[in-house]
């Protein structure tokens, strides 16, 4: 059956699009040039820092936080609800944290005195800090493959070792000289190819 959504890139951004496509009942195909995700989402990543966002981005981050918790339970990967501790080494940094706490309230930002910071290797000049309890932590090397497997089990098709070199409305192309499988065509093509590596050429 012809896909209704083609996603180029199986890093966390591509997988997030695939989760949303699945939720909307789309027939999703994910294309990646490698045999598994090995990009930024495996090498860096892991801190779900929802609280630092603001405005509409905060609404999105809190919605994404819920999705992380759901996926962790369903796909079976570790997701720690530890929050983030932000340290302050100067009075003006403490003042910024106090302003942040006053704006967000105790549910999102809890001020900590130095005596509350029960941390190993705490530097002598740390004055205090804040706990951002809503932030999460995942292990990218476990979470990314687990989400891909969870999607595949629900009918999302993964075409690994398939490089895309051009995207046009409704289709994507492969290099003529290379023996990669042919990427599919679809009404929706989403490129999620990461910021650290070259993106496919986009033709008008
Ligand atoms: C040091 C560091 C720490 C970071 N820490 C965090 C953090 O704690 N929390 C956080 O949220 N973010 C963090 N980030 C940012 C985060 O890592 C990236 O924003 C995120 O991983 C990008 O995901 P992606 O899916 O866009 O890219 P990638 O994970 O790189 O995925 C892109 C995929 O596209 C594929 N691809 C590329 N080109 C093609 C092509 N032509 N055809 C087919 N496939 C292709 C690649 O093979 C790859 O699998 C950090 C970044 C850095 C540098």
Automatic annotation (TrEMBL):
<dbReference type="InterPro" id="IPR006076">
    <property type="entry name" value="FAD-dep_OxRdtase"/>
</dbReference>
<feature type="region of interest" description="Disordered">
    <location>
        <begin position="171"/>
        <end position="204"/>
    </location>
</feature>
<feature type="domain" description="FAD dependent oxidoreductase">
    <location>
        <begin position="6"/>
        <end position="169"/>
    </location>
</feature>
<keyword id="KW-0560">Oxidoreductase</keyword>
<dbReference type="Pfam" id="PF01266">
    <property type="entry name" value="DAO"/>
</dbReference>
<protein>
    <submittedName>
        <fullName>FAD-dependent oxidoreductase</fullName>
    </submittedName>
</protein>
<dbReference type="InterPro" id="IPR036188">
    <property type="entry name" value="FAD/NAD-bd_sf"/>
</dbReference>
